[in-house]
Specification:
This protein is mostly helical. It is built from 5 helices and no strands.
């Protein structure tokens, strides 16, 4: 079921051929390639929020975490989660 208001189209419909050509240029790839300042800011804010959620906020802010360290920590968290899930399944319980 589409998430639209009755009487409105499911997606943006171009009003003419020129608008059709312009809409075809509006892709995520093109958006990221333009490197708009607002998009960079949004990514930085999201990165900071995620770091805070994992409890890495201060290390992230001080630029003490590089990509390898982040991936290593995420891998360890994933392993811990998988181990916990396996233990629950072994006891007949399902992890939500």
């Amino acid at each position: 079921m589409p998430e639209v208001v009755d009487g409105y189209p499911d997606r943006i419909l171009p009003k003419n051929e020129e608008a059709t050509k312009e809409l075809k240029k509006r892709t995520l790839t093109n958006l990221y390639n333009m490197r708009q300042a607002w998009l960079d800011f949004a990514h930085k804010a999201l990165d900071q929020a995620v770091a805070e959620a994992y409890g890495w906020g201060e290390e992230w802010s001080d630029i003490r975490l590089n990509e390898d360290e982040i991936l290593s920590r995420l891998f360890k968290l994933n392993q811990k989660r998988a181990d916990a899930e396996a233990k629950y399944k072994d006891h007949g319980k399902e992890v939500v």
